[in-house]
Specification:
Layout (H helix, E strand, L loop, with lengths): L8 H4 L18 E4 L16 H13 L4 E3 L7 H17 L4 E7 L2 H14 L3 E8 L2 H7 L3 H17 L4 E6 L6 H13 L4 E6 L6 H17 L5 E6 L6 H11 L3 E4 L13 H10 L11 H12 L16 E2 L2 H12 L3 H4 L16 E2 L7 H10 L6 H13 L6 H9 L2
Helix pairs in contact: 2-3, 2-11, 3-4, 4-6, 6-7, 7-8, 8-9, 12-14, 14-15
């Protein structure tokens, strides 16, 4: 059998994900828009972090390569205004490589606080002004298209007149009629909006819906002879937010929204860390350093009082743990070949080391001697036959994974 140094990595993994691919699936120049400090805080079970935590998160967003952060609705309260202003000053004072945006309704009183913050902080604030566009929303609100057009145009005009970039956000875009969207998009372009934000506000869309909507939007933009960016903002009610975000980029969106750990309204948004992880594994973020990604998630969870599920990809406690004997044995054998790359992939589709974690081998009721030998060696304890048999006997008698304390108790009696 050849050793790891004589076998190419391509020979060890046949990647069906790449089979038949025609060129780069996602174009260059995409940007990531972080909604953690806006949509994330709309989750009914989270805490609004204090300003120091928000500043810490801003630094971490910049560190993992987030391009723009939506940092709140400054028109909603005095505290929100002050926090947004402080975060803007943090960016200018520290020359952080991240831009900011704020959200507001299509009313002047929501837009003017953003303009004031921009002037006081000495930096541009991108205005994301939103209004519902779907028939069901229009019916509930007693709106008609003329009213929506009028309110939207007035709000966009306020931001554009102040010299700030404006993104026009149609809430519930994925359930809106094409003729209505065409009218709204054309109006927004004519009034100077630089971006159109397509929202899957209630998590309704499937990948087919993403494709159809983005292709339609691109045709409206081309027909208007404009250069306008397309945002995708998706929620996870059907469990499709991550998949839809990735498809949106392939179908033509150039900016995708997400939140740390997917925290957001109801069941949440597309998880930013998993968007980044998947694009990294697709080879599309070669120069983007994601070593701070775990800290970004950890700080977000702590700041908002969020419990990360133990089986959550990348971040969860069990993401890289195994107590199964066959799995553990394969990882241990790979390690013995002196090839960390191999050990990190033999039983893992996500290489832990790429993101600052490592494979963890535990001891439990499905473990074998390999698990015990590994644990003892890792803890600088000689793996004698008596020790291995005693620990394995204890493990087989329990219904749970042994804790370090339980293992040491067994060793004390050997």
């Amino acid at each position: 059998m050849a050793d790891a140094s004589t076998v190419s990595r391509e020979e060890l993994i046949f990647d069906w994900n790449e089979f038949g691919r025609k060129g780069r699936i996602i174009p260059k120049g995409i940007s990531f828009f972080d909604e953690t400090l806006r949509d994330g805080l709309q989750n009914p079970s989270v805490d609004d972090p204090d300003i120091d935590r928000k500043l810490e998160l801003l630094h971490l967003m910049a560190a993992v390569g987030i391009h723009v952060a939506d940092i709140g609705l400054p028109g909603s309260s005095e505290r929100a205004f002050n926090d947004v202003l402080r975060m803007c000053k943090e960016i200018t004072d520290n020359n952080l490589p991240i831009k900011v945006a704020c959200a507001g309704r299509t009313v002047e009183s929501d837009i003017t606080p953003m303009i004031e913050i921009s002037q006081r902080a000495g930096m541009p604030v991108e205005i994301y002004t939103f209004i519902g566009s779907s028939p069901i929303r229009q019916f509930a609100e007693n709106w008609d298209l003329d009213l929506i057009l009028k309110r939207s145009a007035e709000a966009i005009d306020v931001g554009v007149k102040a010299g700030l970039p404006v993104a026009y956000v149609t809430e519930d875009t994925t359930r809106s009629r094409p003729e209505v969207l065409a009218s709204l998009f054309k109006m927004a372009i004519e009034h100077g909006a630089s971006r159109l934000c397509l929202c899957d506000t209630v998590g309704h869309a499937t990948p087919d819906g993403v494709r159809n909507l983005i292709e339609f939007t691109r045709s409206v933009i081309v027909g208007a002879g404009a250069e306008v960016g397309i945002d995708w903002h998706g929620h996870n009610d059907r469990g499709l937010a991550l998949e839809n975000a990735l498809w949106a980029l392939e179908y033509g969106a150039d900016r995708v929204h997400g939140t740390a750990l997917g925290i957001g309204e109801r069941v949440g948004n597309a998880p930013m860390e998993l968007i980044l992880l998947n694009l990294k594994l697709l080879g599309l973020l070669e120069d983007q350093d994601l070593t701070k990604l775990l800290e970004y998630c950890r700080v977000s969870a702590e700041a908002m009082g969020w419990q990360v599920p133990i089986n959550y990809p990348l971040v969860g406690r069990d993401a890289f743990r195994t107590a199964t004997g066959v799995h553990a044995a394969a990882i241990i054998k790979a390690n013995r070949k002196g090839e960390q790359w191999l050990a990190d992939r033999v039983y893992s589709g996500v290489p832990a080391g790429m993101f600052g974690r490592k494979q963890e081998i535990c001891i439990g009721y499905m473990s074998g001697a390999s698990n015990v030998n590994h644990w003892l060696t890792e803890n600088n304890i000689e793996p004698t036959k008596d020790r291995v048999e005693a620990i394995l006997s204890k493990a087989k008698s329990e219904k749970h994974i042994l804790s370090d304390e339980e293992i040491h108790a067994v060793l004390a009696g050997v």
